Amino acid sequence: MFSTYYLPRKKAHKRPKESDRRHFFLSVQPSLNLISLILRRSLRRRLRQGEMAGKSNKSKAKRAAQSSSPNSTVSALQPDVPAAPAPAPAPDNGAVEAAVPETNEVPPPVPKEDESESQVASNDDQPKQGELRLYPVSVKTQSGAKMELQLNPGDSVMDIRQFLLDAPETCYFTCYDLLLRSKDGETHHLEDYNEISEVADITIGGCSLEMIPALYDDRSIRAHVHRARDLLSLSTLHSSLSTTFALKYDAAAANKAQNPGDKPNVPELDCLGFMEDVPASLNKLTNSPSEEIKCVESIVFSSFNPPPSHRRLVGDLIYLDVVTLEGNKYCITGTTKAFYVNSSSGNILDPKPSKSGFETATLIGLLQKLSSKFKKAFREVMEKKASAHPFENVQSLLPPHSWLRPFPVPDHKRDAARAEEALTISYGSELIGMQRDWNEELQSCREFPHSTPQERILRDRALYKVSSDFVDAALNGAIGVISRCIPPINPTDPECLHMYVHNNIFFSFAVDADIEQLSKKRPSNDLSVTEKVSSSEKVPCKDKTCDGEHNAELNSCNEVPLIESEQATYASANNDLKGTKLYQEADVSGLYNLAMAIIDYRGHRVVAQSVLPGILQGDKSDALLYGSVDNGKKICWNEDFHAKVLEAAKLLHIKEHAVIDASENVFKLAAPVECKGIVGSDNRHYLLDLMRVTPRDANYTGPESRFCVLRPELITSFCQAEALEKSKCNTKTDEGTDIVSEPSDASADTSKTGDESIHGEENGALTSEKTVTEKQNTTADSAAEISKLCEEISFNPNVFTDFKLGGTQEEISSDEENVKKVSSYLVDVVLPKFIEDLCTLEVSPMDGETLTEALHSHGVNVRYIGRITNGVKHLPHLWDLCLNEITVRSAKHILKNILRDIEDHDIGAAVSHFLNCFFGNVAAGKASTNTKNQKKDQSITKKSQGRGKGKASAKKTLSSYMMVDSNMLWSEIQEFAKAKYEFEMPELSRTTAKKVHVLRNLCQKVGISVAARKYDFDATSPFDATDVLDLRPVVKHSVPVCSEAKNLIEMGKLQLAEGMLSESYTFFSEAFSILQQVTGPMHREVSNCCRYLAMVLYHAGDMAGAIMQQHKELIINERCLGLDHPDTAHSYGNMALFYHGLNQTELALQNMGRALLLLGLSSGPDHPDVAATFINVAMMYQDMGKMDTALRYLQDALKKNERLLGPEHIQTAVCYHALAIACNSMGLFKLSHQHEKKTYDILVKQLGEDDSRTKDSQNWIKTFEMREVQKTAQKQKGLAATAANTQKAIDLLKARPDLMQAFQNAAAAERGFDERAARAAAEVRKKAAAKGLLVRRHSGVQVPPQISQLINAGTADSSKKSGENGEAKVEEKKKESSENGKTTNVAAPAGLGAGLTSLDRKKQKAKK
């Protein structure tokens, strides 16, 4: 929920794009040896130190002002601070400032909460991990300006260049050298890969840097022009709606300060409105792009390019045509030294400088001299970028797919620069210089030392950077492969075996094979057939030991059924990726894996891998040393290789076992038979084809289920459970039993969070961390024992296959029994527990993605979703969620089959027709009358599996598919769901699918983007071809995570659960510092870390600090997960609660409205989380005094929970309690008592009478009873006083007969007047109605003033006498109010946490 972007002392910077990174690599790209040197020497040091911490004088002054704020997180986190929120700061003291930090530069400011002065003083001598001592160094820029950097001796020159690239003063300088002048007068020329400490000692002070213009070359001058274009555009600025809310609120607050008489008007949200009509709110999701500030009409490469040879000899490198906003046209020459305007006009080049004589070292500097409008506009652009939140300027490495695009579609305007860039299609490769050797970079990074924390940070960052760049390059390359823009390396082979090499990445196709094909076309002994033909299998075939057999098998592609000749199946590709991840996490020294990514695009699945060294050169030294290439017929074995594999097998719970090949030779393996252990030409040991690292699922043993393997999370969970059981059996004393029972809870919590821990040692460490606060020594021994027992449990991955196993029959039976046991554990323990967690809302998925993540984190394969669906039939929201997920997954496979054979010009029509058949009701019989032939031709899941069959075939497929109707499509979906998920889809499934969140789920899984407009799902054809706006690839990858930060987060969560705020804050801060250095800010793990930081600050009472962290987490979620991801919705909800804690209710309601919109789009309006959000909205309106609105939301939340969860669910009790609190605020104590009584009854039934929450509810009931008695007593006192006043008035009238007569006369006159007035009024209303006017009714006769005065005079006496009574009432009300404040401190029932009680406390603070 909450995030932070900072190092403890060192300023953090945005990670540059790859194109930005190259701006300061101006020389020819270095050789492979130099790259290796860079990786091993400079990058290691640079990454260890983290991002450079420089700042300008301006930003330094601003941070100094910010740090003077009295609020300090550290002071709030002292151990003696209570957990209850402290008084919130005033709204004017930085609430919005905390949410939207101001800065004059791209890098984000270090939050003032990081550390207090006392901490800095205490740590001066020994800085903590991640804290680096900084020294001031002045910088003289190319323009002659002065600025100051705060540097560390370990900073590299690339760090300095990156800061200068981000700083507003120097952002447009790209080609320069750096000179370092030391205190003793020496001058040092800095190379890009030098560290400052290697050149001079800056700790003594007096050092300065100077930027010296360098000479441009062809590469660097083009990079300079591209950089200038980027600076002039706001397209890289991704503004969050939360930032917009805060800025508008800030402006409104400023207006209010100028006009203090204006009352704030908080408009009512339309949440209930768009919850009822979710399709109409689609256009509210997409963020409007930043409005561009035009600086120049155009900057394009001139048609005079390239320079003629005689001009090249005098330094001309490039010519540019520029049109300024004033309409002036210039032809600019870029030379090795500068830019200037030449004298060219028309079609003849005149290289002489123009009369103006302007010449500058940068393009932007020249344009500023040529155009005053450019100078003004450029200043506005830089100011807008600087005023944005720093995270909004950071580029996300792998941005999520956006399934909605703005509607109406924005006009496509001319952009010559964009056209120039699009003309050169590189598909991810370098245009100039040698291509990157992905495998060498990756393996070199893995060989970095990692014995110390700093070395591990360095290594993790290098691996993350290289892996992310590889995925990006693989994505672009896969698009080129599928678009047939990259030729295969084996064009003479059958199309199903085509392979591609581009940008040093190997590409191969995986073809989808549905269940029916596997069962019908595959023989019963099919497990012996080749499972995968990929890059890894092409290597061993060059070895003479297996060349003949392997090539014979490949050449038989056309003779065997299509399914047997496909290169890989979807399942094997997924399993291979999972296996690669597991071995990467095992991280065994000397054992390597290839980089890998899976790209789904236009119905094709492409597997991208880094190239195995030596494969493209046909090097015979690439030999198969381990495993088999022919499914066990011939098995290779090597002792050294086996030792490495065995070391990894111990961490992955893989048993060493015997396997017999076709020649009856027995081999001891510790991996699947079909894996390949190969020594590359670089002498590294590579293990490939890891499709069955975990054993097969014993519940699915048929020939069609050969890829049904167990998930690694299940293996880990089972091993932990078994180890705990054995440990309990070995423990004799009661004390020992208590000790080992606690890690059980820890392991359960770990499984709920979905962390995929492979190492038994790590699991033991986490378990030990849980119990170390109670009994350190005993717990450490227990954890070590459990860890040891866990490591001893292993499985044979080759059981339930057709491979011939060695050993005795008892050993084989024992191995099979172990696999059956874990498979039974999945069905008998894990699945029921998961269903129970779903029902109790311990696990609460919102959409298909979060449901899949929850399944995987619990070790459950998606193929079990049918069983889960049948287990949650009694809960409507879970039934709909699981049913729709089955429907979408089945439809996805059908749609991919269609897209595979569709030509480019038919994609929009085919996709829209499919969506109409899926969501609408397309009737049959439009083009064909032969139902049988139509059914045969249109069998969507049974058609060809190869790539496109040519234009004629594609047209035929499209025309046949266009005749498919809704009934036919849904019949295919039902068959697929039954075959793959073992689920009989009900008839109502078609109706259930007619929802926006189902459309969202399908679009995200296939990569479709549709127009953000309202769709009528009740129409026959809701979609048009123009509604399909884009088709993007969907990627799965193996980018590593940072284990160091992961362990810190786990320890922080344990500390937070125990209420140790200061310790947990320390752990989360260190974890964030490491993550920021490893991944940069735009990563999901950073977001999770920041969520916990904000949670700690919230519990410590620092609302402003919590808002700062929450805002960062929100921006990260929007950029990394998507605008409508459930986590993004919850981020908005948390932001709203924090704003409400600062009494900024209007801003809170805006964020809460956004949260409800996103929840409606991701899960639909019928979800318990929506009801819980309604309760929070109601509490906000209740604090504002708008009780009618609050009650409406509470009643709607109650209806949702009763309908979705049942009348006796704990969340229903939460709603009743909230209603009781609301009625209590209105003085309706009897209703409060009734609602709380229902709360109590539910809690008694669900939790029992002894539960603390049940007792709290009972206390509330007593409180409401007491208040009702007090109210009744007050009412009786009031009635008595009224009776006494009436009697005195009667006595007065009896004593004054003249007054009695006057009253009687007035009454008679009133009756007579009423008769006439009624007739007159009726006539007037009749005429007014004819004219369309509105006439107010007459108010009647008033009592004469003198009579009312007499009555008042008569009652004055009694009023004086009852004065004491009135004062007593006021005192009683005050007492009751104070009682309200006391009772709100009672803990709220289950599910509420501190939410309601904290809201009541906030209300009291506001009144004070």
From TrEMBL:
Regions of compositional bias (Low complexity) in chain numbering: 95-105
Location of the protein in the cell: Cytoplasm
TPR repeats: 1171-1204
Positions of the Clu domain: 410-701
One Pfam family of this chain: CLU
Protein's GO biological process: mitochondrion organization
Residue numbers spanned by region Disordered: 1-20, 50-132, 730-778, 930-954, 1345-1408
PROSITE patterns: CLU, TPR
Biased segments, Polar residues type: 765-778, 1345-1357
Cited CDD domains: CLU-central
Gene3D superfamilies in the cross-refs: Hypothetical protein (hspc210), Tetratricopeptide repeat domain
Feature: compositional bias, Basic and acidic residues: 752-762, 1358-1379
Tagged with keyword Lipid metabolism: no
One function term, GO molecular function aspect: RNA binding
Keywords, comma-separated and alphabetical: Cytoplasm, RNA-binding, TPR repeat
Bias kind Basic residues: ranges: 944-954
Any one GO cellular component localisation term in the record: cytoplasm
Family: Belongs to the CLU family.
PANTHER family attached to this UniProt entry: CLUSTERED MITOCHONDRIA PROTEIN HOMOLOG (PTHR12601:SF6), EUKARYOTIC TRANSLATION INITIATION FACTOR 3 SUBUNIT EIF-3 (PTHR12601)
UniProt name for this protein: Clustered mitochondria protein homolog
Source species: Brassica carinata (Ethiopian mustard)
